[in-house]
Amino acid sequence: MTTPTRRGAAFGALLAFLSLFLGCSSSRASAETSRTDFVLGTLCTVRIVEGPKGAKAEKLLDGAFARLRAIEERLSANKEGTELARINEAAGRAALPASDELRLVLGKALEYARLSGGAFDPSIGPLVKLWGIGSDAARLPARSEIEAARRLIDWRAVELDEAAKTVRLARPGMRLDLGAIAKGYAADELKRLLAAGGVKAAIVDLGGNVYALGAKRGGGNWRIGVQVPDPQAGRGEYLGIVEGLDMTVVTSGVYERFLEAGGKRYHHILDPATGYPVENGLVSVTIATGSSIDADALSTTLFTMGRERGMALAAKLPGLSVVMVDAAGKVYLSPGASKVFTLTSAAYTLAD
Ligand code: AMP
Ligand code: MG
Questions:
Q1: What is the pLDDT of residues 85-142, one digit of tens each?
Q2: Atom of ligand 1 at shortest range from CA of 256
Q3: Whose CA is nearest to atom 12 of ligand 1?
Q4: CA-CA distances (angstroms) from residue 196 to 136, 191, 200, 211, 305?
Q5: Pairing of strands 330-333, 349-350
Q6: Which of 162, 246, 270, 321 has its CA 20 to 30 A from that of 296?
Q7: Quick check: CB of 299 below 6 Å from ligand 1?
Q8: In testing the pocket of ligand 1, which one of 78, 111, 129, 177 has its CB within 8 Å of the most ligand atoms?
Q9: Residue 127: is it exposed, middle or buried by C-beta count within 10 angstroms (0-12/13-18/19+)?
Q10: DSSP-assigned letter for residue 118
Q11: Distance from residue 120's CA to the centre of ligand 1 (Å)
């Protein structure tokens, strides 16, 4: 018998939100305008720290959350009637017209599929749906079901036609899932929207996918807490802190969404080669960089590739800071990360 235990995405997001070290006193904080709502399957918070105030700031937040909902209407695989859901329904049949937005995000996802040799794969949908990790339908599937779903996964059979502006999935039953990249894209979009609206400093936190816009009040670095990669860790426990200006910090970890069945824990990042959750000794991968769509895609991509292959790929990409943690509590930093990341948890040690 399986007993799915699901950690609420909202709670995880709240922890991530609480993990921001903003260093504001309450009187200063009152000059901020902030809003939290459930969108894109998670708790999203936007805080305008410096820029328009009062009604103007509220209007900007209206626009920001409307934008998030519009992105969800296009890119969600879990909601009925979205643009992505329609493409999934037409798998094996017609090419469907696809918006610029969907083609951009899917194009990026396919780029990371190629870079990772298919360890990252946006056509992972049949497996994500079968396991249902993070949803009420989470369960340990039978091996035969996993095999059947696995056979449908093939990023090379995703036909993205930029000239015709269409997408087609070559085989019936194929299913796209952009859950590893959509929040990063959304964070970039909100950053652009806020900056265009005159915001000088803000925090966009989409379920732990954070973008810190501008500089902290007074001009200092943002200090963003990285959560301890342990489902048992209490609220406000940090692995360490990333410092910087105008940056995004995104983590993929085994602690975020998981299922417990038969005394074993199954997390939500799946290996297209086995059909089971990735098991390579890593428990979390954090990326700090300028572009959130890349950080989101890469945190998942490097996680699926494992420490050595993942770090080797990261070394070829400019402007990345990568923090990897393994199950033994060792923390591995890319050369860039050693400049911006400080380990604060005594339970973990830096690898040489
Ligand atoms: P993240 O939390 O950004 O690492 O993304 C994890 C989500 O991406 C999962 O909940 C799935 O929706 C999806 N996913 C799981 N495994 C993969 C994979 N190997 N490649 C691409 N997307 C994946
Ligand atoms: Mg991701």
A1: 999 999 999 999 999 999 999 999 999 999 999 999 999 999 999 999 888 889 999 9
A2: 2
A3: 179
A4: 39, 8, 10, 15, 37
A5: parallel
A6: 162
A7: yes
A8: 177
A9: buried
A10: T
A11: 8
Identify residue 311 by its one-letter amino acid code: M
Which residue out of 183, 268, 294, 299 has the highest number of ligand 1 atoms within 8 Å of its CB and is therefore the one to mutate? 268
Structure tokens at 339: 């400049």
Q: How many CB atoms lie within 10 A of CB 349?
A: 12
From the list 350, 310, 344, the residue with the least C-alpha distance to 332 is 350
The per-residue pLDDT for range 2-26, each reduced to its tens digit, is 333 333 444 444 444 444 444 333 3
Considering only CA atoms, which residue is closest to atom 3 of ligand 1?
A: 180
Q: Which domains does the chain have, with CATH numbers?
A: 1-352 (3.10.520.10)
Ligand 1: centre distance to CA 26 (Å): 37
**The two three-digit tokens of residue 48, written as one number:** 């305008």
Q: Cβ(155) to ligand 1 under 6 A?
A: no
Amino acid identity, residue 272?
Answer: P
Q: What sign does the dihedral 228-234-236-237 (CA atoms) show?
A: negative
Q: Is the distance from the beta carbon of residue 188 to the nearest atom of ligand 1 less than 6 Å? A: no
Q: Are 154 and 206 in contact (CB under 8 A)?
A: no
Residue of the CA atom closest to atom 19 of ligand 1: 120
CB 212 within 8 A of CB 242: no
Nearest alpha carbon to residue 130 among 155, 147, 149: 149
Helix (H, G, I), strand (E, B) or coil at 247: strand
For 146-151, what is the mean pLDDT?
98
**Atom number in ligand 1 closest to CA 134:** 10
